[in-house]
Structure prediction request, 298 residues.
Amino acid sequence: MSATAAATAQQGIYHKAGSLRRERRWALWSAYISLIVAAIVMLAPPVYMLLTSLKTSAEVADLSGSPWWVRRPTLENYAALLTNRMFIDFFINSVKVTAAVVTITMVISVLAAFALGRMRFWGSQVLATGVFLTYLVPDTLLFIPLYQIVGGLGLLDNAWGLVLVYPTLTVPFCTWIMIGYFASIPKELDEAALIDGANWMQMLWKIFIPVALPGIVAATIFAFTVSWAAFVYPTAFITTPSEMPMTIGVVSQLIRGDTFAWGQLMAGALLAALPPVVIYAFLMDYYIAGLTAGATKG
Prediction:
């Protein structure tokens, strides 16, 4: 190769490397700008809620200043809620319903996923797909027939009626996640356990549950979030304040006609959102690992 050709080739390599660096730099800038815009859009509502919850009613009503500035911060809205027995009842109802729903969901989901993912039988694949398709049915279409069922059982206006209907939202998706995990476990473990004399329940308890723990954690977090934050069902089924969960109790009791207690409304909304936020903060890695692994293995 002549010196001129070598120099030309070298220039081409430098030009290509420079183009790649510029493309990578523009890609990074685009990614950062997109993340910043997304963060602003997503964080603006909770930040505004926090600022409003720190204002007095007079300051909220005063429209002369910027709504994004708190002139006289106060915790009186939080104090008013935390010392209100009705608000405490809302919280207790939410905890009671959520704990029951999560327990029921995980028992049903683990057993169903184990049967569909490992105990192969005729129609198991079709049934597994049907379970997931059931999750895609919006709750706005289900609450009317469920209202009749709950009413027929005498559980209208009762927090325990929510325990009956919430699993229709949580069980299908959690079962789908667990099917992906159970189906990914090598068949050799089944065969070895059966040779050693283990039955199906022993295999589930001693082999599959420990291996699929990330998926179980992800499904548990999902069930907790859905049952804690559900709004359509409690709005349709509960009208007595003493039976209301936090999602509708705060709204229904702090809005009187055309009077809105904005400070307490925002404080109540933030307090209601706090438990899921805390759980996600500590278990986010498990949740992401569970969803991604379950999706790729399913």
The first strand starts at residue 255 and ends at 256. Residues 52 and 277 are 19 Å apart (CA to CA). Residues 3-53 form the longest helix (51 residues). The beta strands are 255-256, 259-260.
